Amino acid sequence: MSAATAYSTVRKAAQPLTLRLGTRRSALATTQSSWVADQLRAQGHTVDLVTIVTEGDTSTASLSSLGGTGVFAAALRRALLAGEVDFAVHSLKDLPTAPEPGLTIAAVPVREDPRDVLVATDGRTLGELGEGAVVGTGSPRRVAQLAALGMGLSFKDIRGNVDTRIAMVHDGSLDAVVLARAGLARLGRLDDATESIDPLQMLPAPGQGALAVECRADDETTRAALAVLDDADTRACVTAERAVLAALEAGCSAPVGALAEVVEGEDGLELSLRAFVGSVDGSVDLRRSLVGPVTDAPSLGHRLAAVLLKDGADVLGEPEERPPAPAGDQSATRPRASGHSWPPDPPGANGAPPLAAPDRRPENDSTERAT
Ligand SMILES: NCc1[nH]cc(CCC(=O)O)c1CC(=O)O
Question: Any idea of its EC number (predicted)?
Answer without folding.
Answer: 2.5.1.61
